[in-house]
């Protein structure tokens, strides 16, 4: 088999990966739909009917795209928002009814493990790496090397979740920023403490916040996965972007180069999460990877073929 597909249902967006191996080369294409299925789940404990409908429609379209490429086995995973929702079975059943595909609702540590497998597939660097995956509802930390995972954690801080919790104004106030930073620092203090004596050669960022920050740093008018992959993003540039974002209205953010308009309302929070983590581990740059849990799902499929 030389064609693979995978779908990830995140808090902010649903993504499809199409992967083909041909004549020794790998052709990858990712497609994203910002359905925001996790909107207000932190407050209501439930997925909205609108969110379910939009997301099921997106998954049906993605399954069709994969099947049109001759891909029949299309694993679908759902992460933070769906696993936290009381009515998650309603969503899972709706997808099964519409597409015949089962959605696997995975725990945070499994999400982190898949992210690690994906990063390793696309990583040139060697040594000890700390992978940070800032999603819409949670952030995963994976520490290890090319051969083994040595530490793996998931905590409930994400760009959508914390924006809804702390940011009430378009122009971020000093009070909002202080409360956000305090909450992030308190949330990550244990994992940072566990990392204190561990050597880190590279910090690797995956997920929408990390790739968007790289895109904004490069001021990309059209997103280019290959250009973003393996970008080295310095913390001083993250600080500069944060400074710009908190002074801008939502409409102004939507016109920033490199920023997808549908992510304009949550990117500030995601960027602050990223900066606080880098501050706490004492690193001044992060390597951005376009390989993540979707590639991890492809790795699992390829591995099962060998077995």
TrEMBL record:
Cited Pfam families: Ppx-GppA
The UniProt GO MF terms for this protein read:
pyrophosphatase activity
Annotated Gene3D superfamilies:
3.30.420.40, Exopolyphosphatase. Domain 2
The Ppx/GppA phosphatase N-terminal domain covers: 32-304
Q: Mind telling me which residue stretches traverse the membrane in this protein?
A: none
Cited PANTHER family = EXOPOLYPHOSPHATASE, RETROGRADE REGULATION PROTEIN 2
State the family named in the UniProt similarity comment for this chain: Belongs to the GppA/Ppx family.
Please give the name of this protein.
Answer: Ppx/GppA phosphatase N-terminal domain-containing protein
Originating organism? Anaeromicrobium sediminis
